[in-house]
Design brief:
Its cofactor is Fe(3+). The protein is mainly beta. The protein contains no helices and three strands. It has strands at residues 27-30, 36-38, 73-76. The chain binds zinc ion (ZN).
Length: 79
Amino acid sequence: MRRRDTPGEGGARPSPSTETEVPSFKIWECALCGFRYDEAAGLPEEGLPPGTRWQDVPATWTCPDCGAGKDDFEMREAG
Ligand SMILES: [Zn+2]
């Protein structure tokens, strides 16, 4: 009979400690007009470079299509 009394050796490591370099981007959709803001794509013409997180979008930003505020946007799963 074998006993596992050396958990520190040869064991499978459940989760690598490497940080996620490319966090998943999300898509936010305007509840009023359906306009979508893609974090990965940003909105360069609105002054938001690609990769701009929703949380980094200025609170004063409004939907370019209907003028709705950020509170009117809902998160959509990308993909
Ligand atoms: Zn809108």
